[in-house]
Amino acid sequence: MFLLVIFRKLNLIVACCKMEKEIFLKIFNNVVLSRLIFDNVRYIHTACLKTKKVYRWEEVLSLPYVMVGNNYFQMFKNYFYKNKVETLLQNFNAIIINATRTGNLEILRYVIDEIQFEIMIRCNRSLQLDMLASAALNGYLHIVKYYQSKTKFRFDCELALKMAIEGGHIQLLEYLVGVAKQIESSSSSSSSSSVVISDHRIIDHAAKCNRFDIVRYLHSANVGTASNKAMDYAALNNNIQMLMWLHHNRAEGCTSDSYYHAIENNNLEMLKWLYENTSKGQQMAPNALRKAEAKGNLELIQWLKAIERKHLYSQRCKEIQNQTNTNLSTSIKM
């Protein structure tokens, strides 16, 4: 931890000084700091990257997909030139995916120009999907367009849309929506490419990802539909603005899960709004009080108990009224 703090402070110093040579040299000419830093580069790198794998330099020199993943283009070209067959047989998928993840179109073009890319890609459907998902998740519109221009495989627009939504890439999403509408309008043709949106509830997915801006965009663009899960996901994400917007702009409604998510998030404001504005407000969701008690939120418990007493009182009044009406009807008959 101490080493990581030093490393971050050094980064801050260098950034603030715009890499002034004099200050940089002062830091690294300090024998203690210099030795400490360079003796622990691997540890510092691992701590900063957390879950990402860290490679030694000698490993990088023998792993072409690592070269690609770190944008060592010239190194990769040299390796590929000497080990073309081995590289294609053992590392092709990893190279393509890593180049996609980094958004490096230059490397992609190089690899694709060097091999019969279309033949290889047709034989591997899972790689097609991985390529598309990686490009869309990272918002690489230029990569998505390039793959489309280079391949004739079935374009899985549902997957691309979902990944673009998860990444929050509006520009790419707009492009994909345009592609979807354009190809679907000519779906009767015998074209080898087609857009597939088997999951029409794409708005649910946007709500699940807590992307309110994308929910509104999909709604305005009339793309897909939603279910009552959209409001449930908004409640799950503790997003009352999205919850209210869905209620006022769409007709799917919500389920009891919205109440439970509000309780789980200790959000009394949301719980009150749900009770007052949705059809479920006529009766509190089953087990709501029990779930609030499990959370130990006194304010929620008190409010729910007040609602419970209100419903019990209302129910008892109705029973008395019904009994009175029955007795009155009996008296009239007599």
From TrEMBL:
Keyword Signal (UniProt): yes
Keyword annotations from UniProtKB, A to Z: Signal
SUPFAM superfamilies (alphabetical): Ankyrin repeat
Signal peptide: 1-15
Domain of life: Eukaryota
Protein's UniProt keywords contain Signal: yes
InterPro entries, per database record: Ankyrin_rpt-contain_sf, SecEffector_AnkRepeat
Protein name: Ankyrin repeat-containing protein
Lineage: Eukaryota, Amoebozoa, Evosea, Eumycetozoa, Dictyostelia
